[in-house]
Design goal:
- Among the domains are: 107 residues, Rossmann fold (3-Layer(aba) Sandwich); 76 residues, Alpha-Beta Complex (Aldehyde Oxidoreductase, domain 3), CATH 3.90.1170.
- It is 29% helix and 25% strand.
- It starts with a strand and ends in a 21-residue tail after the last helix.
- Pfam families: ATP-grasp_3 (PF02655).
């Protein structure tokens, strides 16, 4: 029986493409990089361009062209990953045109939170007003620049990856998705969950890692999970997720960014699409099918959720270039030769030069405990830096102790 087709589009779709392949799908991957393992997981790959007006956002015209070129059969599910945080009102009409179809290569079936619902999550005043109405906690916010900026962070819901968080506002300080939020001491965490538009199914708790630089002190560096949590705490989170799923009509796999502070858990942001933490779940398959099922109103039962969590803690960390890293053919081959031993992914498909500050690849690890995963990631990051030469990679901030209030009873 031939494999069912699925289209997956975003900045980099390797993890989602591999998850879909584990579930038996024939993957058409559309992303900006075409890394080796992305191409290996896909039956077909098409390159996307980045929007020159919006950093690290997919240009919808290039996605249009790639989908036309792919000529997918009507009814093919379309899963979007990263690269669409700043789409505003443009993605909805674009998607409607593709769903309605006007030819043999159109008529896709979108699998995810509808763009008009996702867009509310990117409008600070509407998002935090909804949290107030639901009685959910979050650090204090201001929609105008504070008179005294000390202790405030400037954030932009139109960005992603942590680079949109700064202590001072850039010159264009009137962007509609920008707001200010009190800086609180705490541990950045996230919840990965599935939603059917009304309810949610909690997959697990994750710790966010930072690959910080002086200019980008909150840059996303990776994630470790699922982590243990007390039953009472999980029950509270489940209530929050149910409320958010119903309020924002969330569908499919999503994530909720949190801050674990001495004063309690605080909500930071809802990510209504396939997120980086998805790579921690479904190691034996089932995650993409669970995502598609959730989009049609069916959530996994407790046994299925346990299978998706798996028995081990997993982690991934991004290796960012500190300086420009040129890879001629011999150096590129040395990187590929080290891939299996260091569990490297998102490897470039050909010799190239990685610019300073850009991601080179992803390191992965799994072990029985969070501490063991963190240790392994640190060792592999150091080994990769040694292979490439001293000062070649930016530092990765790894946990030194378990997160607060997450131990099992």
């Amino acid at each position: 029986m031939p494999s069912l087709p699925i289209a997956i589009a975003g900045l980099s779709v390797r993890a989602a493409a591999e998850a879909a392949r584990r579930d038996g799908f024939a993957v058409t991957a559309l992303d900006a990089f075409g890394d080796l393992d992305t191409r290996a997981a896909a039956a077909h790959w098409h390159r996307l361009r980045l929007d020159p007006a919006q950093p690290w956002q997919v240009d919808l015209a290039s996605l249009d062209a790639a989908l036309h070129e792919a000529r997918l059969p009507p009814g093919t599910p379309l899963l979007l990953t990263s690269g669409f945080a700043a789409e505003g009102a443009t993605l909805g009409p674009w998607l409607t045109r593709w769903e309605l179809g006007s030819g043999p290569d159109l008529g896709l079936r979108f699998a995810g939170t509808r763009p008009h619902n996702a867009d509310v999550l990117r409008q600070p005043q509407r998002f935090f007003a909804a949290l107030d109405a639901l009685g959910l906690p979050y650090p204090p916010v201001s929609f105008a620049a504070p008179a005294d900026p000390a202790g405030w962070l400037c954030k932009d819901f139109g960005g992603a990856g942590g680079v949109q968080v700064q202590r001072t506002a850039p010159a264009a300080d009137r962007l509609p998705r920008r707001y200010w939020q009190r800086e609180l001491a705490g541990t950045p965490m996230s919840l990965t969950f599935l939603a059917d538009g009304r309810r949610a199914a909690l997959l697990g708790l994750n710790r966010q890692l930072l690959a910080l630089t002086p200019e980008r002190p909150w840059r996303f560096g990776g994630v470790i999970g699922p982590l243990p949590a007390a039953a009472a705490q999980r029950a509270q989170w489940q209530g929050w997720l149910d409320a958010l799923a119903f309020q924002f009509h969330l569908q499919g796999l999503c994530s909720l960014d949190l801050l674990d502070t001495p004063g309690g858990w605080q909500i930071l942001e809802v990510n209504p699409r396939w997120s980086a933490s998805a790579a921690l779940y479904g190691p034996d398959g089932g995650l993409v099918q669970a995502h598609l099922d959730a989009c049609t109103g069916s959530l996994p039962d407790p046994a299925a959720l346990a299978r998706l969590r798996g028995a081990r803690v997993r982690g991934s960390a991004i290796a960012y270039a500190r300086t420009a890293l040129p890879f001629d053919a011999p150096r590129w081959q040395r990187l590929l030769d080290a891939a299996q031993a260091l569990d490297l992914h998102d490897l470039p498909a050909a010799p190239l030069t990685v610019a300073a500050g850009e991601p080179l690849c992803t390191l992965c690890a799994h072990a029985p405990t969070e501490a063991a995963v963190a240790t392994t990631l640190a060792q592999r990051h150091a080994a990769l830096a040694d292979l490439l030469g001293n000062e070649s990679l930016d530092d990765l901030a790894l946990p030194t102790q378990p997160p607060m209030e997450t131990s099992s009873p």
